[in-house]
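We include this case.
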Amino acid sequence: MRYYALLLVVSFLTRLPSLFIRVIDADEAVYANTSRGILKGLVLYRDLIDQKPPLIYYVYALFMGIVNDLRFVHAISVIVVWITAIAMYHLVARCFDRHSGVVAGILYAAFVSTVGYASNTEIFMNLPLVLGVWFFFRNYSGEESCISPGVGRQAIPWGDTRFRSVYHPGG
């Protein structure tokens, strides 16, 4: 439990600046405005147009329906980063040891905000991705470790396409 508290402190301190900024970037503004339209009964991709997959708009609509302020979404992103850091801790501790798990959780919480303070798709998609890998590895023990040859190639989580477009022009 003390590791959870440490991960909360790191998550909070690294995301703290976002709690005082109303809109951080254009993507957030689009998510917020689209989610407000959804809350008013408009239909995504018919009445509201954007190129991103739908789940991020519904996540925003959930939180914007509670408190209609992006700073609330920023506060939720602190919690999401914290829970993801805990999941990272458990994943790496399961595959290696507790000390490595703590370091991995701290590094995730500390550096996920280096790409910016916005509550973008990356913040919300990392949790299902890490949980997917953890659920995959949770039953491995003894000879079948997380780092056995071939095991890692099978651990491809599902969540990316629901939050982020995977279309890469020219690639």
